[in-house]
Amino acid sequence: MITGFGKNSFALLALFISGFVVLNGMIDDWGRLSGSFQNLIDFFHQSLWPPDWTVLEAQAYPVCTTPEPFSFTCSTAWIGMIETIKIAFVSTILGMIISLPIALLAARNLNSPRISYLARFILAAGRSLPSLIWAIFFVILIGLGPLSGIFAMTIYTVGYLGKLQYEAIEGMDKAPLDAANSMGLSKFEKSLGVVIPESANHLISQAIFMFEYNVRHGTVIGIVGAGGIGYYINLYLKFLQYDKVMAYLIIIFITVLLIDFLSIYARSFFNEEDNVNRPSWWGVILPDILRWQ
Amino acid sequence: MTGNNENQNSKPIVSLSGLTIGFDSKNPLVQVPDLKIYPGEIVAITGASGVGKTTLLRTIAGLVSPITGTLEVCNSILPKLPPRGSVGYIPQRLGLVRHASVKHNVMMGARAGHTNPHTITPSAESLSRTEDAIERMGLTDKIDEPIRRLSGGQQRRVATARSLAQSPRLIMADEFLSELDEETLNSVLFEVTEYVRSTQAALIVVEHDVSRAKSMADRMLVIDDGRVNPFLSETTALEVNL
């Protein structure tokens, strides 16, 4: 007889084998992998390392008027990264404003299935395409630049954030809604007076997470000309200047890490309980295993 | 099944007939052959855990559809729901908005009773009812405090204030007196019974504590073996007919 542990192990093994079978079907020649690691090492030493930090130097044109210690603010890396953050910020705000009313309509504990499915369809349409595809669409529609990026990421944010929001609303405690329903409050009053305040912590936390997500994805949409640091990455990729690309990637990595850390710290203020311990600044950065407690 | 209230000649606030409630038509939870609750009357529902006291209350509140039977609450026959603000329901878990203030929560009740649903700002009447209900429940010093920072007893007082601010014709409370100390319990009970008697509203209260139920109610309904009985025995009947 298979015990509970045995059953789980068997399921895990079956999953692993089926994964391997599918992978094997997709790879025609395993021999191609043999030299790949050496290729990576060669590529890293010849093209990527050391990174070319001239990307942090002020551009020749337009002339930089900022004094010397801060002249890096005229560099392509700084300008691109700040533009990416701005695009992510505006898209998150716009996305949240648009998605919240749709999420309220999509929540099944507030509306009839007909209204709920219609709203869910709208949200699903928004996230069915990645922001990169939306960016290509808007670059064709309104041309190159950050505006295309803002539109693209706003639409994706509406779809993605809206889903998180209606799931949070559906997961809220039933008792406040019962009390509001028996009182005869209108849907508008219930939404504004009960649902939004009751799930506010989740909604704020999700918006912060979405901003962090948008910063990460904002670096990609620039590749298709929708503004941000991705534009410069694409430019240097075309000229095969991989050392400069490496410098941009390190800058993106540090920025994303910083925003990730700020996001976790900010979200800790919107925990359900007041007496929850705030993460220390160190605690956010260090993995669990390296922490004292 | 009727009470001994002098208002039995007036139209009942709640009238049930042949009501079967529950979630499975083949296995109903409670059957109520006939029940009328009159203005100014306080009715306590007791019974063991899980017999369907809360479901009966939720059915009367219009939150659960009955399997069979007719149900009339505040002159509205199901499936038509009672008029806005006419029913104040205090769920067992109170149904307060935990992250909002005491004032916000009580205001929700006052809005339902005294503000047009199409206006955003609450009426002056709603504002004064809110402050009055908070004062009567002794929570004036906590008016801006979020609910999650209040004790269990204080939260029960907020839920009661919300219902009083609504000025409903029917208050339904699911064990709203638990977690209250003796002094607060008496003061909350006094305010609620005073409201019911003075406005000729009705109060249905689910109460585990039989002696407390007897002390507060005009009539006591016992849910026993899936049926609502007016009283379990003659002795009980004599004790509870106040």
State the end-to-end distance of chain A. Answer: 42 Å
CATH topology of the largest domain in chain B: Rossmann fold
| The CATH architecture of chain A | Orthogonal Bundle
Q: What do the pLDDT scores of chain A average to?
A: 84
Taken together, the total number of domains of chain A comes to: 1
Number of helices of chain A: 12
Number of helices of chain B: 7
Oligomeric grouping of the chains? heterodimer
Return the CATH class of the largest domain in chain B: Alpha Beta
Structural class by SSE content of chain A: mainly alpha
Q: Poorly predicted ranges of chain B (pLDDT <50, ≥5 residues)? A: 1-5, 231-242
Describe the strand arrangement of the main beta sheet of chain B, using strand numbers.
6-7-8-3-9-10
Biggest interface, residues from each chain: A-B, 23 and 39 residues
% residues in beta strands of chain B: 15-25%
Radius of gyration of chain A: 24 Å
Q: What fold name stands as the CATH topology of chain A?
A: MetI-like fold
Largest sheet of chain A: none
Quote the average pLDDT of chain B: 83
Give a structural overview.
- The complex is a heterodimer of chains A (293) and B (242).
- Chain A has one domain: MetI-like (MetI-like fold, Orthogonal Bundle).
- Helices cover 70% and strands 0% of the residues of chain A.
- In chain A, helix 3 runs antiparallel to helix 4 and helix 3 packs across helix 9.
- Chain B has 242 residues and is an alpha/beta fold.
- Chain B is built from 7 helices and 10 strands.
- A 6-stranded mixed sheet of chain B has the order 6-7-8-3-9-10, with helices on both faces. Chain B has a 4-stranded antiparallel sheet with strand order 2-1-4-5, with helices on one face.
- In chain B, helix 5 links the parallel strand 7 and strand 8.
- In chain B, helix 2 packs parallel to helix 4 and helix 3 runs antiparallel to helix 4.
- The longest helix of chain B has 18 residues.
- The radius of gyration of chain B is 17 Å and the shape is globular.
- The N terminus and C terminus of chain B are likely disordered.
- Chains A and B meet through helix 7 and helix 8 of A and strand 6, helix 2 and helix 4 of B.
